[in-house]
Amino acid sequence: NGLENPKTGYSTEASNFGDLAMTDESAALINIFFGKQQCEKNAWGKPERMPQNVAVLGAGLMGAGIATVSLEKFPKVVLKDISDTALSSGINAEWPLRPGIMV
Question: What's the average model confidence in pLDDT over 55-83?
Answer without folding.
Answer: 87
